[in-house]
Design a protein that fits this description.
495 residues; mainly alpha; 79% helix; 20 helices
Length: 495
């Protein structure tokens, strides 16, 4: 039975959550919807592990829908990069679903909780589809599935500002998707194909045409909006701040990472290193990335809401990934792919802590977190360890990412860039210390209600993610080897 299903795992990975979503609507019961989402998330995680093992052992997997040969039919293609990103998305989803019930019950009205799990599964479907499809238009379809369901997830927040944040994200997300599909349409006009592998073969013949130059510009803006690239990030802080806590955790750890994957896939799998290097896009990305890591880290220092603080930090972290892309080297792309994986674990852990804090004190304002170091010792200890990882302290995953990024900068002779990366990390110390100071060095207000640790089903996922930050910071065999293999395949053997 299992052996007969193995060849069809790429399509099962997408179909499984897609079918599960309407089943949640049919039952309309919170417990049943959560159980379905939990089972599907863990099954998808298992499938991701199997696919990654198959790719490492046997090379890329090509799955033809309806047995139609490419480029006539739609191809699902799993290589080392897509399998690696798929593992990130599914592992985060599996952990978040264990944490979810208590938090969702408190923040979302009972009559709408089944909608949360439905929209989560649709977002899950879209993100997995983006990582697995080998078709540029099909990528747009999955992008819209994930985006539309994300808008609904954000709007489920208890505050009225959640609706405003969702509307802003909807408008800008629609603009981004429109720009992307215009770029894809222009490429189709010039090549007559939508298959990513076929596009890569045909584009060099028309690479110098104005149509293709305009196409890459449209696609860059479209994906830039989706991943929160400075200065196209204006939707992100409010979306993270006002969405339900579990939604913030999931989107912060997966959505922007999948958008970075899209950028890597388009730039290097479709356009290729030579075309990408021939345009000034790498210089533009470098400038925007440097501005992001400095300005957004500085803005984070002045935030009074911990979720907004981490949201601006996320924009800065996207800047690090973009800087790695701009290097157009194996080391630079390795740093980007590593940070894509590592930052997902870091932000998942940090936002899980804030979700636990909100569960207890109904607030994530920094001033309201006074005395939590003693009242919630295990939760806040997790925040410290995950924060150290964000800063890039040795023996954590954050150190590994920044180490490779600085190595990439030094290989290019970009000493000032390496220096600015260090400066940005020092700025992160300031905003991280703000929360630590309040939590550990200021007492709980007089008359404040007594609080205790969160339940074990919330605390355990937090520490699983914190443990992952330390484990993969010390044992880098899987992450570094996978990231380096993916970088080499993208760069085409360039140094």
């Amino acid at each position: 039975m299992l052996s007969s299903l193995s060849p069809h795992l790429p399509i099962i990975q997408v179909v499984l959550p897609l079918i599960a979503a309407p089943i949640c609507v049919i039952f309309r019961r919170t417990g049943v919807a959560w159980l379905i989402a939990l089972v599907v998330s863990w099954l998808s995680f298992g499938i991701s592990i199997v696919l990654l093992e198959q790719v490492i052992s046997n090379g890329p997997i090509s799955y033809l829908l309806g047995s139609w040969p490419t480029p006539w039919g739609i191809e699902y293609r799993v290589d080392i990069l897509s399998a690696f990103v798929m593992l990130i998305v599914t592992s985060i989803g599996a952990i978040v679903m264990i944490f979810a019930p208590n938090s969702v019950h408190m923040e979302i009205p009972p009559d709408r909780t089944y909608l949360f799990y439905t929209m989560y599964l649709l977002t899950f479907t879209g993100l997995l589809g983006i990582t697995i499809t080998g078709d540029a238009f099909n990528l747009f379809v999955f992008l819209e599935i994930s985006s539309l369901s994300s808008y609904v997830l954000i709007s489920l927040g208890a505050e009225r500002n959640a609706l405003t944040a969702a509307l802003r994200y909807l408008i800008l997300g629609t603009v981004g998707a429109t720009f992307y599909i215009i770029g894809v349409g222009l490429m189709y006009q010039m090549t007559g194909t939508l298959n990513i592998t076929d596009l890569a073969e045909r584009l060099p013949e028309v690479a110098s045409t104005k149509t293709i130059l305009v196409a890459i510009g449209f696609i860059t803006v479209g994906i830039g909006l989706k991943l929160g690239l400075f200065p196209l990030h204006v939707w992100l802080p409010n979306a993270y701040a006002y969405a339900p806590s579990v939604v913030t955790v999931f989107l912060a750890a997966t959505a922007t990472k999948v958008a970075v994957y899209m950028m890597l896939r388009v730039y290097f799998s479709i356009f290729g290193t030579k075309m990408f290097s021939a345009l000034p896009i790498d210089e533009l990305l470098l400038i925007l990335g440097l501005i992001a890591i400095l300005s957004m880290s500085a803005v984070a220092i002045y935030q009074s809401n911990a979720k907004r603080l981490l949201a601006y930090s996320s924009v800065a972290q996207v800047g690090y990934m973009v800087i790695g892309i701009s290097m157009v080297t194996t080391t630079g792309l390795t740093a980007t792919i590593l940070h894509l994986f590592n930052h997902a674990m870091i932000k998942c852990a940090l936002f899980l802590v804030l979700a636990a804090v909100f569960y207890r004190i109904k607030s994530v304002k920094i001033e309201d977190m006074a005395g939590l170091g003693k009242a919630m010792p295990y939760t806040m200890a997790a925040f410290i360890v995950a924060g150290f990882s964000l800063l890039g302290v040795p023996l954590t995953v954050g150190f590994i990412s920044k180490w490779y990024l600085i190595l990439g900068a030094l290989e290019k002779g970009w000493w000032p860039v390496a220096g600015l990366i260090v400066v940005s990390s020092l700025l992160a110390v300031i905003y991280f210390w703000k929360i630590i100071e309040i939590a550990y060095f200021k007492p709980r207000p007089e008359g404040a209600a007594e609080i205790s640790e969160v339940p074990l089903n919330m605390l355990l996922p937090i520490w699983v993610m914190v443990g992952s930050n330390v484990y993969f910071g010390m044992n880098t065999d899987l992450t570094v080897s996978a990231a380096m293999s993916a970088a080499k395949s993208l760069i085409g053997g360039a140094p």
